[in-house]
Amino acid sequence: MSQHEAGAGSSPAPAFVRSGVAVRPALLDAPADRDAVAAMLADYLVITEREKGGRVSGASALPERYRREIEDPAAALAGTTVLIAEGEGEPLGMVVLAAPDLGRCEVKRLWTLPAARGRGVGASLIEAACELAAGRGDDVVALTVWRWREGARRLYARLGFVEVDSWEARADLVCYARALAPAEAGRGGRERS
Predict the structure, then answer these.
(1) Taking the model in full, what pTM does it have?
(2) Which of 52, 93, 136, 143 registers the highest number of CB atoms within 10 A of its CB?
């Protein structure tokens, strides 16, 4: 499959621009996007495992299910939309937007490169994901975050997410949701009554 974007095919043009941060769909068949997403996934997964108490020296020490994401993001993330944040043409972060299920979708794997933190990258990625979800007619964007990630939890609250009853079996995951405004007719979203 050429010019594969994990999920629906669309233009690589920015979906959202905020203070010098452009967000666009990743084209996972393009080597630069595939490599950038794989590197960011590796960083995200290694840090997460360490935060959970694992003694992970690097990506090669991750559980196999995570190594598969890094080795072949296009296959591992098929059916999702991966968004990349860039500044001056350089990757700054990423997020994965899952396909909707009965009007509800989830964002996963939000990652901002440490050197790019404090520049609005995470907010830009989440807002772009919510805009995309609203445009395709989703009603709710949901996510989980580890309890100890206070900065991420504050970001989600600032962006309109509220803590909800957990759907997760893992005790330290906190569940959040954000209701989306119905997409306006004529803006690419479906009409709703």
Answers:
(1) 0.83
(2) 93
